[in-house]
Amino acid sequence: xxxxxxxxxxxxxxxxxxxxxxxxxxxxxxxxxxxxxxxxxxxxxxxxxxxxxxxxxxxxxxxxxxxxxxxxxxxxxxxxxxxxxxxxxxxxxxxxxx
Length: 98
Known about the structure:
The protein is mainly α. The protein has helices at about 5-25, 25-55, 65-90. It has a domain at about 1-55. It contains three helices and no strands.
């Protein structure tokens, strides 16, 4: 079919749609309420019941303390603390008082 023929039909339909929905306001509200209820029930089922059914996976792994990484982090923290202490001992000129 030619798109020039279909376009006026779609335009005509969408122009009449608000009036059609307003004439059947109760049914539209009832449909939207049931749709929201069904969506809410689906989400509740998915995120509440299915999670309890499957349960979390328990991973049995040992905790290993890696001394070299810990020392690296401590070194970085000490460097930052030294830089912070250097700035606190510096005296700056006050631009508001000559």
